[in-house]
Design a protein that fits this description.
The structure holds two protein chains of two kinds. By secondary structure, chain A is an all-alpha fold. Chain A has one domain. Helix content of chain A is 74%, strand content 0%. Chain A is built from three helices and no strands. The longest helix of chain A is centred in the middle third of the chain and has 27 residues. By secondary structure, chain B is of the alpha/beta class. Chain B starts with 6 loop residues before the first strand and ends with a helix. Classes of the chains: A mainly alpha, B alpha/beta.
Chain lengths: 84, 130
């Protein structure tokens, strides 16, 4: 997990207190893209770790592909939701 | 290793997911088949009669995973179906379980979780066989 922001706990408290929500359509996109890509990364790395093997170049390339897909999805979502 | 080879079918429209799941369970002694669509899964289930099916819910074309689950329950009622999806909505989980899914896993999951649930299904099959 990335290091928490200096006031991250306060941010969560504020979200709860002010009832700040994410539109269900956005949740659907986040869940679909992020969960699927992470699942794929887990399968690739998990299989390698389970067998005590070293990650092959091909598998490393696949992990990078799925990581890039997360980045591209977040960029797309940002573009679609940024109204400034 | 398993005493009798258990037949497992994985349904997911992501080819890579099918390939990694197939490789994982083949190493554990299962006979594994995959399908990239619900329709392909139904065709294979009629022919293979798998013991366990891992079903993604949201598929690009044809039947979705829940529709496939319904058909599998008709064709091969003894097949233990495990749903594997990103959708963590309680209503979807209830719907799948009411339709006969033995487990509902939310992506992303670890290999350990996947193995644990599949071995639990295997254990159910063994008990049934006694």
């Amino acid at each position: 997990m990335a290091n928490p922001l200096p006031e991250e706990q306060e941010i969560y408290e504020r979200i709860k207190k002010e009832n700040i929500i994410i539109h269900p359509l956005i949740w659907e996109l986040i869940n679909h893209h992020i969960r699927n890509e992470l699942h794929m990364i887990n399968l690739i790395i998990g299989s390698t770790v389970l067998d005590g093997e070293i990650l092959s170049e091909e598998d490393a390339g696949k992990v990078l592909k799925h990581s890039k897909a997360i980045q591209e999805f977040l960029d797309e979502l940002f573009k679609a939701t940024d109204k400034e | 290793m398993l005493k009798k080879k258990i037949k497992l079918l994985v349904l997911d429209d992501e080819r890579d997911i099918c390939e990694y799941v197939k490789a994982l369970f083949r190493k554990k002694g299962f006979t594994v088949f995959s399908a990239l669509s619900g329709n392909e899964a139904i065709r294979k289930i009629k022919k293979i009669k798998p013991d366990i099916a891992l079903l993604d819910i949201y598929l690009k074309k044809g039947l979705d995973g829940l529709e496939a689950l319904k058909k599998i329950r008709e064709i091969s009622p003894l097949c233990r179906c495990v749903m594997v999806t990103w959708d963590n909505a309680a209503s979807k989980i209830e719907e799948a379980k009411a339709m006969g899914a033995v487990s509902y896993l939310v992506k992303p999951l670890t290999i350990t979780e996947l193995l644990r649930v599949v071995y639990r299904a295997v254990s159910g099959i063994r008990k049934r066989g006694k």
